[in-house]
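// run 5 | inverse folding | seed 20
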């Protein structure tokens, strides 16, 4: 790796660190699990990219085993984030460690025998099994909120960019890997491109007014929790809410506990303040 290439990658990774820092700020602002999981994925990808660059800079002859085993960490973090983002039933979470361990064993065996073509086939099958739960019937649909919708848009754009760049490797593989500066330019553009949707998300989030924070908090509530919260603000007792909502008293208490936990509040007065700061149109939605 030339000095110029190294400088370019230092600049690119600095931009990646800015992205990670901004997203950390967004998470601190919202305290949302989806954003935390996305932040972990970003950090994971950044560390993977740095390891690849260092391997090339240090002239490691065969860094493919290092690359493959580093990618295995992404196999864990990305599914956890994706399953939460698309409301996959929690029972499928146990599939992740089982599939990842199985794939780790298979990939290392194939690497040992230098069967790279079969390795790629194995990885495709692994992706299919790992993605399967996302396409099953969704559970807990009432837990949709604005942050999840926005994060899904970021995800779709990022995945689209990723697929486009990966597809371009097929016709231009020879050009990219034979001419070093073109290869470096390609990966620089790719790295910056998949960061772009997240940057836009961060900018839009920081542009929101402080008063919109109450909207974000309420958006984390499920439909039923929103109904219970509104009833609490009206001064109804848990027993009255249970009767009105046609649910058990224990269910009301469970929803109330969840509401206070999600909104990070301690009493009904704080709950009422949040609802007072939120436009009615936002509450009803």
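// decoded
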């Amino acid at each position: 790796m030339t000095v110029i290439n190294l400088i370019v990658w230092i600049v690119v990774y600095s931009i990646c660190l800015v992205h990670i820092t901004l997203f950390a700020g967004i998470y601190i602002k919202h305290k949302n699990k989806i954003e935390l999981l996305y932040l972990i994925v970003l950090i994971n990808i950044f560390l993977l990219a740095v390891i690849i660059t260092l391997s090339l800079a240090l002239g490691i002859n065969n860094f493919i085993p290092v690359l493959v085993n580093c990618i295995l960490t992404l196999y864990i973090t990305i599914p956890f984030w994706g399953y939460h983002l698309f409301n996959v039933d929690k029972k499928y979470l146990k599939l992740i460690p089982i599939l990842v361990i199985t794939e780790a064993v298979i990939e290392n065996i194939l690497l040992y025998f230098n069967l790279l073509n079969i390795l790629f086939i194995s990885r495709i099958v692994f992706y299919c099994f790992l993605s399967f739960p996302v396409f099953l019937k969704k559970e807990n649909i009432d837990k949709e909120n604005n942050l999840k919708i926005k994060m899904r848009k970021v995800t779709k754009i990022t995945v689209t960019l990723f697929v486009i760049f990966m597809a371009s490797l097929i016709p231009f593989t020879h050009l990219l890997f034979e001419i070093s500066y073109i290869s470096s330019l390609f990966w620089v553009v790719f790295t910056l491109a998949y960061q772009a949707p997240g940057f836009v998300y961060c900018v839009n989030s920081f542009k929101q007014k402080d008063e919109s924070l109450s909207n974000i908090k309420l958006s984390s509530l499920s439909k039923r929790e929103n109904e219970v919260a509104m009833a609490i603000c009206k001064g109804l007792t848990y027993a009255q809410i249970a009767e009105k909502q046609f649910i058990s008293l224990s269910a009301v208490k469970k929803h109330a506990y969840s509401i206070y936990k999600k909104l990070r509040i301690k009493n009904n007065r704080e709950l009422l303040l949040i609802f007072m700061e939120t436009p009615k149109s936002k509450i009803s939605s």
